[in-house]
Amino acid sequence: MRCPYCSGPDTQVKDSRPTDDAIRRRRVCPDCGGRFTTFERVQLRELTVLKRSGKRVPFDRDKLERSIGVALRKRAVDPERVERLVSGITRQLESGGEGEITTESIGELVMEGLKGLDDVAYVRFASVYKNFREASDFKALLGTLAEAPPGAAQGEEPDSTVTPLRAKPRPRP
Questions:
Q1: Which of 24, 29, 36, 165 is deepest in the core (most CB within 10 A)?
Q2: Within 10 Å of residue 130's Cβ, how many Cβ atoms?
């Protein structure tokens, strides 16, 4: 692996550790002494994305992560949950049995994942993915979110033991 600092052709691995879906390697360059970290991910198969225009491009996990990041911008979502979502979508695509996937299938998986992660990010992503043109498009999408039980979109189980609060009648003087 080339050194990112001096472009030296050889680097040495000083430490390797497995993470959830990658191998983290700590490297050092013998030429300049620069230290850096690399992550190696297992790729089950080579995936090709078929775009709406008919163009075929290689699947890019980083692009998927960036798109989800744009939808989640300024939202309080744990980065670890985002990483699990991206890894899960990638795993689903790789194990799907098809070497060629459509942008529609990727978009549907992202929308499904975001719906369980954050409602606002789900609406943001859906508005771009489904090319919303007017307010009624948002209203229809929000209507589908409103039909879900409270907390279901955030991955919470509805609590059947909680009873709604009722106002107590005031005693008359």
A1: 29
A2: 13
